Amino acid sequence: MENVTVNFLRDDDITAPVLIEGLPGIGQVGKLTAEHIMHELGAEKIAEIFSLHFPPQVIIDEEGVSHLVSNEIYRYAGEDATLLFLVGDFQSTSAEGHYILTETYLDIAEELGVQRIYTLGGYGVGHLVENSRVFAAVNMPELIPEVEAAGGSFENAQNGGVIVGASGLLLGLGVHRGIEGICLMGETSGYIVDPKSAESLLHVLKNLLNIEIDPTLLQQRAEDMEQIIAKIREAEEMKADEELSYIG
Amino acid sequence: MENVTVNFLRDDDITAPVLIEGLPGIGQVGKLTAEHIMHELGAEKIAEIFSLHFPPQVIIDEEGVSHLVSNEIYRYAGEDATLLFLVGDFQSTSAEGHYILTETYLDIAEELGVQRIYTLGGYGVGHLVENSRVFAAVNMPELIPEVEAAGGSFENAQNGGVIVGASGLLLGLGVHRGIEGICLMGETSGYIVDPKSAESLLHVLKNLLNIEIDPTLLQQRAEDMEQIIAKIREAEEMKADEELSYIG
Amino acid sequence: MENVTVNFLRDDDITAPVLIEGLPGIGQVGKLTAEHIMHELGAEKIAEIFSLHFPPQVIIDEEGVSHLVSNEIYRYAGEDATLLFLVGDFQSTSAEGHYILTETYLDIAEELGVQRIYTLGGYGVGHLVENSRVFAAVNMPELIPEVEAAGGSFENAQNGGVIVGASGLLLGLGVHRGIEGICLMGETSGYIVDPKSAESLLHVLKNLLNIEIDPTLLQQRAEDMEQIIAKIREAEEMKADEELSYIG
Amino acid sequence: MENVTVNFLRDDDITAPVLIEGLPGIGQVGKLTAEHIMHELGAEKIAEIFSLHFPPQVIIDEEGVSHLVSNEIYRYAGEDATLLFLVGDFQSTSAEGHYILTETYLDIAEELGVQRIYTLGGYGVGHLVENSRVFAAVNMPELIPEVEAAGGSFENAQNGGVIVGASGLLLGLGVHRGIEGICLMGETSGYIVDPKSAESLLHVLKNLLNIEIDPTLLQQRAEDMEQIIAKIREAEEMKADEELSYIG
């Protein structure tokens, strides 16, 4: 078995200047954002990536049909933009696998004409965040003004820090191929799936892509999540009160 | 050393349309079922599979003779059916090894003419089960009606879920070679070796294979296990009573 | 770097029918026994084995000189016997490495004419043992009577059990090359380095090799260890007494 | 992707007889010392080493620009000496990777004419050290007198001990290529980053290299660290006093 296998589902000459990565990570912020954009734009799947560096398992869908763990490339080719997306449910199981898989992602990107990659993720701060900032990192210093103009912040850079997995390596390995890389990280607690942080991230990304994307569905998911959190808090307070009256 | 070595013990032209996998897993349900069928039909060993992805050890048999860890292929070639079996005491020690070993299993299956693979396992629910249902997953949607007609249930699919190891990968990698894959999972607590769940699984598999297999030995093992559980419960209740009278 | 590198320190045609393995393991029983024999017979080092499957470190000797982790082949070529020894301070760091290293050991063995391998180890029972039995396993059933005649016991075989690492794999992989393999395991607590168990093991091995080896040094080490254990017990009892008188 | 990639940033014929390794380790003693010398001499970067054996991540600098994890070769070519330095923020993530990376370091060293390697590290003793000794190990016994004359101590050798990672393997693998290897280890608690121990180490290394290096900056960092430790101790004592008066 090859370490990585790529199955292309379409054979055409359409190139795309931009790839957006939204694999699983902190608060699922990157995944939520990328999948929201794909859904709104109606992107279609054009490639599947299988690898022995993914977990050795199949996923059962709601019909009972098995699917080998994979990452996938989707494409939206519209009048306003042509965009590629890299999404999936898993990253590599091993340190070495992250490097090997990212080189494959970059091979695909180069083959499809990509000149810039946005990698999306969460920036965990360990407490609930009211208004999520969008922190950023780039792989070429000349990209900084453009990101700041779009609403991205580089405040986090003062803390040093690292970006682990595909979101980091696409920047770090991409620069050696001359591909621009911008990592956007929505501030998030790190405790919950965070569509509100994803909405902040979407806002900055829209400015950078210069296209329109309706945020309504993401806003609704954020409101649903707010209500879930409110209910949990209420239940906790009630329980605390009951315990007090019991003691009293 | 090769990653995987296959020793064929027979050299003939007999092909088999069906492979049944029963490697170790939850409640040993798959292993019990496959080994029961092999025993009842009198299947013979036709190949041994060794690999550096298995644990680095030998097993000592009751005579004191060592045996390298292996998986094995058995065959039953009768008038009613020709069946292959994939059994053994271990699976891969590493994530990557699961992929590499499963590709070897599929190479063997293709070489021997296999068109359909049944993978057998347990479906752990965390509590003792009176009447084990048999849950299923398939690698091609058109297989669903046949499995349901034989008594398999797809209720579990609503929970999503994954199938880890060879039972999953034989479906997930097999579909890319055009081999039908059906995974049958006997509902089981997950705490004990469960011949009763294996008996339920056998019932559904017999319907699918359309052959007769005497379940008596499996039923006896299930009754033995029931008695062991009953005795453990009794002992626990007696102990609880004693403690109460001591307090009283 | 090659996975395994072998440096031969001598270039002659001397072959040896027997290899004795004494790598680290339970109670260091195998290592103590092999090194005692090597010392008594005056064996000389004829090969060094380096590998990236060993721990990534050097060992500092009493002079302050570093030595890359290695396993080593020693040889005794006398009138009574020609024997090879496989010894060292470490085994593989990974499961796969055990297989790869053992194949190298067998390559060397074949090259040097080895027809039989003795692998030496401890058999941990979890409590201090007064008179250590010597349990055995073989890779060909016809070897059993000879081992029993020499004082080895196959009682342990009834418990099933596995032999992990080089001691097991030399038997399991060796049989596929037609090399006889006998594993001798001195009964030991598993808690301490156990020269007394090594002495029992030496006794059985001497019978099998049919040569004389003076056990005096091993007996002395066993007596030293007995005294250490006695002192620890005494100290524990005194401490217990003091605590009692303090309470009283 | 290659396991290891080396990018040379300069193409000239300058050779250097000496390589100084200062990768991360106990108390960061080796890293502090190597980076101090590089800074004082004004060494320049001449090569970058990337590898899938490093952690799969990028590091964000204070501008917000990502940098793939790497080790780096710096060079100082002055009238008094020509020196190479091997530095970086990480070592291998796996045992095997340490061997593979060290072989690459030695390939580079040989290519650049290196005949001697100094590997720098800390020697953890588990308590704060007033006057750090500098312990040593060598890969050829004839190097001992020179190291002792320069102030290095071989007292530690009596305890046996191992040197893990690149500092050890450069000696252990280097000797097989005929490259002299001297490991210098500054005595340190192991609890804190220890510039004072680095200063002791610098003193011995200067003697060996026979060049002048101003220790002022390292001394200042050591004084800063002393003050930090003094303040922590003071705070702890005040807290202890408060607790006593509360009890009293």
UniProtKB/TrEMBL annotation, chains A, B, C, D:
Keywords from the UniProt entry: Coiled coil, Proteasome
GO cellular component, one term: proteasome complex
Keyword match Phosphoprotein: no
Signal sequence residues: none
One Pfam match: PAC2
Name the UniProt record assigns to this protein: Proteasome assembly chaperone family protein
Annotated coiled-coil segments of the chain: 218-245
PANTHER family reported for this sequence: 3-ISOPROPYLMALATE DEHYDRATASE, 3-ISOPROPYLMALATE DEHYDRATASE-RELATED
Organism: Methanoculleus frigidifontis
